[in-house]
């Protein structure tokens, strides 16, 4: 940590990265893109409507997948074995909670997948605005899995309601509860090139540390006669994050 603080001080004095890193600078671009692929969308500029006024700020703009006021438990289970369908590794983090717990988008993006999957049951897949992260929310509630009117192609903001916790899945037939324990399966896939989206070399990361980081940063929702609403409406103000969906596409490493 001391070396990181020293690097920050050096950069603030005007030293260039190549000066600080010396011969290691040749790896700088690779690692910069790798780390920003995971963390790039978690910090930035955003606005929150508070007391009738929009307030702009900078900081952590990602949210826990579990809405504020709802309990859950989890442990580090990435890589554990799974056997339904075929032997494989568990590529996410399971958050145990109560049936119907509201699930929110960790980061803003576009809904790329919404519907039934025999492994994940009712699930939502959201692609970050810069195209580098694909968030997977699975085993949603039987009969009422998704936020009202949510559909593929919709843009959502971080903290928006997307669905409700359940135990669907492990069935080729839709809307079946074959998972023993109510929980959310939450996963994140990194995509440096579109050929990596669905292939044998997909990059899924251990999100357990991320879930722990976001545990105190949770989106507040309330249910009204008009449906579920955010207590504090939110806007992502980093317009450059929309580059992927404006046709510029993600950079490769």
UniProtKB/TrEMBL annotation:
Transmembrane segments: none annotated. Keywords: Signal. The keyword Signal applies. GO terms for molecular function: metalloendopeptidase activity. The keyword Plastid does not apply. It comes from the Bacteria. Residues 89-189 form the M23ase beta-sheet core domain. This is M23 family metallopeptidase.
């Amino acid at each position: 940590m001391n070396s990181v603080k020293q690097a920050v001080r050096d950069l603030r004095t005007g030293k260039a990265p190549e000066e600080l890193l010396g011969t290691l600078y040749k790896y700088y671009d690779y690692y910069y893109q790798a780390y920003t692929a995971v963390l790039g969308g978690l910090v930035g500029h955003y606005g929150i409507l508070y007391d009738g006024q929009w307030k702009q700020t900078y900081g952590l703009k990602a949210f826990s997948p579990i809405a504020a006021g709802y309990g859950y438990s989890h442990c580090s289970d990435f890589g554990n074995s799974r056997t339904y369908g075929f032997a494989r590794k568990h590529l996410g983090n399971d958050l145990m909670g109560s049936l119907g717990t509201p699930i929110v988008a960790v980061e803003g993006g576009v809904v790329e997948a919404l519907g039934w999957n025999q492994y994940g049951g009712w699930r939502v897949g959201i692609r970050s605005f810069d195209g580098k992260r694909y968030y997977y929310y699975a085993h949603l509630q039987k009969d009422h899995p998704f936020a009202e009117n949510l559909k593929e192609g919709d843009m959502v903001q971080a903290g928006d309601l997307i669905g409700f916790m359940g135990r669907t899945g492990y069935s080729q037939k839709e809307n079946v509860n074959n998972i023993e324990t109510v929980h959310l399966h939450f996963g994140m896939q990194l995509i440096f090139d579109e050929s990596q989206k669905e292939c044998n070399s997909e990059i899924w990361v251990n999100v357990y540390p991320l879930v722990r980081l976001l545990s105190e940063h949770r989106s507040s929702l309330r249910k009204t006669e008009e449906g579920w609403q955010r207590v504090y409406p939110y806007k992502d103000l980093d317009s450059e994050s929309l580059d992927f969906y404006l046709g510029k596409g993600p950079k490769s490493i």
